[in-house]
């Protein structure tokens, strides 16, 4: 996505920042920010107004063989926060961090046992939305358990991959009547029925 002159009701503004990083290899990074406030998300007149940020990052350094190296990357973001020269750097860094978090989350949901697929539930009214919300809820509950449930943490450590844990969990749920998650986790961890209490 990029904004061309004339596509915005607001003025396109620019900001630049240059910094160096590294100890053994000094890299010079030049950040060119371009932003516009109050542009339409789509070309139709009913489309909401958004604020647009475009970042061009150019990093240059001398490589191991004395050769000049250059890496150029471009990022774009939209926001409902008014963009100014005072907040552009913070907004752009926040946008990149949010992208990283979203990318890692979808990678986890796709490749780590949750089985998210692109066409999840297509063809049925609201099915896609319901599947995705159910999956996000499951992912959320799992994250809470990883933070706060000692037994769940031990299971994750033992199985190493959550997809293996989910497979065992699914199998056990089908054939073992248990009255609590603690009993269930005990069974998965020790591979034996929990001791009777009472």
Could you give the topology of this structure?
Elements: E1 13-21, E2 27-40, E3 49-62, E4 68-79, H1 88-111, H2 127-148, H3 150-159, H4 162-175, H5 181-190
Antiparallel strand pairs: 1-2, 2-3, 3-4
Helix pairs in contact: 2-3, 3-5
Verbal overview:
It is a single chain. This protein is of the alpha+beta class. Among the domains are: 13-83, no CATH class; 127-190, no CATH class. It is 40% helix and 25% strand. The chain contains five helices and four strands, in the order ββββααααα. It has a four-stranded antiparallel sheet with strand order 1-2-3-4, covered by helices on one side. A hairpin with a 5-residue loop joins strand 3 (49-62) and strand 4. Helix 2 (127-148) packs across helix 3 and helix 3 runs parallel beside helix 5 (181-190). The longest helix has 24 residues, at 88-111. The chain is extended and about 70 Å long. The mean pLDDT is 86.
Q: What is the tally of helical segments?
A: 5
Major sheet attributes: 4 strands, antiparallel
Please compute the radius of gyration using only Cα atoms. Answer: 25 Å
Q: Taking strands numbered 1, 2, ... along the chain, how are they ordered across the largest sheet?
A: 1-2-3-4
The proportion of residues in beta strands is: 15-25%
Order of helices and strands: EEEEHHHHH
**Distance between the amino and carboxyl termini:** 64 Å
Total strands: 4
Looking at how many chains there are and whether they match, the oligomeric state comes to single chain
Mean pLDDT level: 86
Percent helix range: 40-55%
* Unreliable sequence segments: none
Global structural class? alpha+beta
Coarse morphology = extended
């Amino acid at each position: 996505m990029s904004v061309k002159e004339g596509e915005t009701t607001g003025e396109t503004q620019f900001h630049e920042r240059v910094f160096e990083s590294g100890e053994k290899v000094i890299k010079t990074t030049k950040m060119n920010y371009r932003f516009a406030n109050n542009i339409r998300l789509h070309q139709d007149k009913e489309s909401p107004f958004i604020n647009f940020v475009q970042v061009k990052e150019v990093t240059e350094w001398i490589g191991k063989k004395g050769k000049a190296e250059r890496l150029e990357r471009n990022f774009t973001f939209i926001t409902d926060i008014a963009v100014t020269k005072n907040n552009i750097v913070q907004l752009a860094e926040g946008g990149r961090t949010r992208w990283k978090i979203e990318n890692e989350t979808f990678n986890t949901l796709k490749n780590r046992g949750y089985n998210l697929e692109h066409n999840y539930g297509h063809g049925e009214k609201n099915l896609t939305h319901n599947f995705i919300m159910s999956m996000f809820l499951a992912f959320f509950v799992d994250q809470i358990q990883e933070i706060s449930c000692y037994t769940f943490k031990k299971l994750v450590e033992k199985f190493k991959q959550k997809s293996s844990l989910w497979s065992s969990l699914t199998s056990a749920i089908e054939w073992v009547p248990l009255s609590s998650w603690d009993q269930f986790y005990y069974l998965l961890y020790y591979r034996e029925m929990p001791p009777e209490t009472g």
